Amino acid sequence: MGQFVFKLPDVGEGTAEAEIVAWHVRVGDVIQEDAPLVDVMTDKATVEMTSPVAGKIVALHGEPGDMAPVGGPIAIFETEGGEDAPAAPAPKATATKTPEADGLTSTPAASEPPQAPPTTGAKPKIKAPAGATWSEDQVQAAMQGAAPQAKAVPAAAMPASKSPPPAPKQTQAVARPEPRDAAVKEWSQAQASPAVRARAQKLGIDLGQVRGSGPDGRITHEDLDAVLVPVAGARRSSALAERNGVEPVKVIGLRRKIAEKMQDAKRRIPHFAYVEECDLTELEELRAHLNATKRSDQPKLTLLPFLMRALVLSLPDFPQINARFDDDNGVVYRHDNVDIGIATQTDNGLVVPVVRHAEARDVWDAATEVSRLAAAVRSNTATKEDLSGSTITITSLGALGGIVTTPVINHPEVAIIGVNKLVERPMVRNGAIVVRKMMNLSSSFDHRVVDGYDAAAFIQRVKGMLEHPAALFIDR
Predict the structure, then answer these.
(1) From 10, 102, 447, 454, the catalytic residue
(2) Is cis: bond before 412, omega within 30 of 0?
(3) Which of 152, 155, 119 is nearest to 29 (CA)?
C-alpha cells in the first residue's frame, strides 16, 4: 500500500487560501478517481474539488469553516500497491507538471500514517446530545473548542468502541439507571426512524434508555409514548413544556462572506435613505400587454428590466451616483458604463450577479440576462466575472418587499435602489378617489459622495420615467 497526499491547488487568481465549506467524504471511505471530495470557497465562488486518485481516505485536514492554505495538504489517500514488493521511491512528476504545481504529492508505502490525537484532546462536539442542557458559558466553551484548526482527522481518531468516553464536564447528561439493561443501547446505536429520533430529541428523551418493541428492537412512537405515560391513565405531558436547548451554528462559507461584507459596508459607509412612492399603473398595463404579445423566444418581463432602463437613462445626469469609491485612497471612480448588480437570494444566502453594460440593452435583452444570472447563481455555476464589478445595485424582495426598507450599500458602490411591494391603494387623482397600483422605491446612498438633494433629484427622475413608461423608449 502507498499513500497519496492531495494538496490544495490555486482555485483562483493568486488566491492564498480557501475556506472549506463541506466534505463529501469521511475518513475510511473508499472513493474512485474524480469523485466529489470537498467544496471550497473563495471570493464568493464555491468550487467542488474532485479526488485526484482512487483509494481509501486516511486523513482529512480541516473542518467546514477552516481556512486551508493553497499548497497545503488537505487529504491523504491510501492507494493500491504491491504490499510484498520492495518500497519504491516516490513517483516523479511529468516534465510539464510538478506535484507542487497541481497540489499533489506522493509518499512511499513505508511512510507512517498520521497518529491519532489523544481522545481527551479531541475537539468537543458543538451540538449537545439529547437530554443535555448547556449553559451560556458552556456554549462559549464549545465554540472556542471548535475554533478553526488545520488538524488532520486520521482514521484512528474515529471512535471504535461502543463505550462512550468519560462524560465531559460541560454537559449534564440525563441520569441513567444502573446497572444498564442489556436490551438498552447507546443513543447512536438505537434503531429508530428519523421522525422518532427528532421527536425524542424534542422531548428530551434519551433513546439509549428506551426499550424498542419493533423488529430487531426498533424504537417506535408507541415506545416514546410509553416513556411519557408510564402508568395507564396517567396524564400526558403538556405540549407547552419549556425548552432550554441552545444550538451554536458556526458562520461559515457564503454566510461568513456575506457577514464580513455587510459589516464592512456599515462600518465604512455613512448611509442615508430616501423613500418615494411611484404610481406604476400605466407601466403594469404596458408590461402585461408586452408579455401577452411577446414571441415564444422572448423572456417574460418583470419590473426589473424597466427599472434598469430608467436607471440607465437617468444616471448620465448624476455621474456621482454611478460610481465606486476607493475610500482608502480617496478617489471616486465615475463610470460611463452602467453595470447593474441584481441582489439575488439563493439557498445559501445573498449574492449579487452583475448585468454588464445595461446601457446597451433593451428591456428584452436585460430580462434575458437577469434570468441567465439568476439561474447561474442558484445552480452555483456563476463565474467570478458574473459576481463582481457592479457600479450600482438593485435589490428586490418581490411580494415580500414590504412598505419601506433601508438596504445596505454594496461597497465600494455609493448607491443601492430597493424595490418594495406593489399594491393597489386608493389615490386622489383630479379630485376623485381611484384605485392605483403603487410601489415605493427605498434607496440608500453614501453621504460622503452623494448629497441629499442630488439623491432626491435622481429618484424623482427615475420615478417620472416609471410613471410615464413611454419615456423609457425615447432616446434623449
Answers:
(1) 447
(2) yes
(3) 155
Task: Please determine, for residue 135, whether its predicted confidence score (pLDDT) is greater than 70.
Answer: no
CA atoms of 131 and 129, how far apart (whole Å): 6
447 flagged as catalytic: yes
CA atoms within 13 A on the CB side of 320: 13
How large is the average pLDDT for residues 310-321?
97
Higher-pLDDT residue of 427, 202: 427
* Catalytic residue from among 34, 181, 326, 451: 451
- pTM here is 0.61
What DSSP string describes 312-376? HHHGGG-TTTSEEEETTTTEEEE-SS--EEEEEEETTEEE--EETTGGG--HHHHHHHHHHHHHH
Peptide bond into 99 cis (omega under 30): no
Location of C-alpha cell 428523551: 205
- Is residue 344 within 8 A of residue 382, CB to CB? The reply is no
- Mean pLDDT is lowest, of 66-75, 117-126, 196-205, 396-405, for 117-126
**Rounded to an integer, what distance in angstroms lies between the CA atom of residue 293 and that of residue 86?**
77
The answer to whether 125 and 199 have CB atoms below 8 angstroms apart is no
Under a CB-based contact definition with an 8 Å cutoff, are residues 104 and 25 in contact?
Answer: no
Least Cα distance to 387 among 346, 441, 419 occurs for: 346
DSSP, residue by residue, 156-176: GGS--SSSPPPPPTT--PPP-
The Cα 74–Cα 9 span in angstroms is 10
Query: Residue 68 pLDDT more than 60?
Result: yes
> Does the structure show a pLDDT above 50 at 175?
no
